[in-house]
Design brief:
- The protein is an all-alpha fold.
- The protein has one domain (2-304).
- Helix content is 81%, strand content 0%.
Length: 314
C-alpha cells in the first residue's frame, strides 16, 4: 500500500504542474480582455474531440458509452458539478485575483474533500479522517487566510469577495463530482474514459453558458481561442488524467486519497512562477510568501504521513 501511495502522490504532483497552467492562462486571458465564459467553455469544447480521439484509438469508447447509459442522469449531474460548476467559477475568479492567489485559495479543496467524505461514503468521521490529517489541512487553511489578508490590503472588499467566494464553492464542487463519479464507475473505467465521460456529460452545461455569453454580446477573441486549446491539452487532458490515475490507485484508502489531493498545493508555486515569467508580476510580499510556505508545509506533511489504517469506500 505504501508503494502504491507513493506512486499516486508522484502522479498527483505531476498533475499539479499541468493544472497550474490553468490558473496562469485564465489570468492571462482575463488581463487581455477575454470573457470568462469563453475561457471556461472553449476549454471543454476543445477537450471533447481530443479525448474522443484518444479513447477511440484505445478502443475503449463502447465500454464507456455502455456505462454511461446505465446511469445517464447521475453522469450529467455529477459531471456538471465536478467539471462545469467547478471550472466556470475558477475562470470567473481569475478576473478578480492573480493566478497564484486563486491557486492558493483552491487548496481549500483538500479540506472540502475530507469534510464531505463521511457524508458521501456514509461512514463515521473519526474512521474516515485522522486527527493528524485534519491538523495538516488546517495549516494549509491558515496559509490561505494569511495570503488573502495580504491581498485584501490592495483591493476593494467586493473584488476580494468575487475572487474568493467562487473559488471556495469550486473547491467543494470538484472533489464532490470526482468522488461521486468514482463511486458510480468503480474500477470499470480507466482515467481517460472517465475524463471523456465527464466531459461529454457536462457539455449541455457549457452549451447553455455559451448561449448566455452570446446573448449579452460577449464573444471570444482570437488569442483566447488558442490559449484555451493549450489549457485543454495541458490541464484538461494531461493533468486531469494524471490526477484521476492517482485517485484511482488509492480510491479505497480515504486517508491516502486525502494525501493525493494534498499534492495539488504545489500548484501555488507553479502558478506563481508561471505568472512571474509570463505576466511579469512582482514578487509577493512577506505575508504572501509566509502563506505560501504554510500551504507547502501542510502539503508535505500530508504526503509524508504514513497511515496505519484504511477506510474502504462503500
Amino acid at each position: 500500500m505504501t508503494s502504491n501511495k507513493s506512486i499516486a502522490i508522484s502522479l498527483g504532483l505531476l498533475s499539479a504542474l499541468f493544472f497550474a497552467i490553468t490558473f496562469v492562462f485564465n489570468r492571462l486571458m482575463s488581463v487581455e480582455g477575454g470573457f470568462w465564459i469563453w475561457s471556461a467553455s472553449l476549454r471543454f469544447f476543445w477537450m471533447l474531440p481530443l479525448l474522443l480521439i484518444l479513447v477511440l484509438f484505445r478502443k475503449n469508447l463502447k465500454q464507456l458509452l455502455t456505462e454511461m447509459k446505465k446511469k445517464p442522469w447521475q453522469w450529467m449531474l455529477w459531471s456538471t458539478i465536478g467539471f462545469g460548476v467547478f471550472y466556470a467559477l475558477l475562470t470567473f475568479a481569475a478576473a478578480y485575483a492573480p493566478s497564484w492567489l486563486v491557486a492558493s485559495t483552491w487548496q481549500i479543496t483538500i479540506i472540502a474533500g475530507m469534510l464531505m467524505s463521511p457524508i458521501i461514503n456514509k461512514t463515521n468521521f473519526k474512521k474516515t479522517i485522522s486527527f493528524q490529517a485534519l491538523i495538516f489541512s488546517l495549516i494549509i487553511l491558515l496559509g490561505v487566510i494569511i495570503m488573502q489578508i495580504s491581498h485584501a490590503k490592495s483591493i476593494a472588499i467586493n473584488e476580494l469577495l468575487l475572487g474568493i467566494v467562487p473559488v471556495l464553492i469550486a473547491a467543494f464542487a470538484y472533489p464532490l463530482g470526482n468522488r461521486k463519479m468514482m463511486q458510480i464507475t468503480g474500477e470499470k473505467l480507466n482515467a481517460m474514459q472517465r475524463t471523456l465521460g465527464m466531459t461529454m456529460a457536462s457539455i449541455p452545461f457549457w452549451m447553455l453558458l455559451s448561449v448566455y455569453g452570446m446573448t449579452i454580446n460577449e464573444l471570444p477573441n482570437e488569442p483566447q481561442v488558442y490559449q484555451t486549446l493549450i489549457v485543454a491539452i495541458c490541464s484538461g487532458i494531461v493533468a486531469t488524467v494524471l490526477f484521476f490515475m492517482a485517485t484511482n490507485r488509492v480510491q479505497k484508502d480515504e486517508k491516502a486519497l486525502a494525501s493525493v489531493e494534498a499534492t495539488q498545493s504545489v500548484e501555488v508555486i507553479f502558478a506563481l512562477i508561471g505568472e512571474i515569467l509570463i505576466l511579469k508580476i512582482s514578487l509577493p510580499d512577506t505575508y504572501s510568501v509566509l502563506g505560501i510556505i504554510l500551504v507547502m508545509i501542510g502539503m508535505v506533511l500530508h504526503s509524508l504521513k504514513k497511515e496505519k489504517e484504511t477506510a474502504k469506500i462503500v
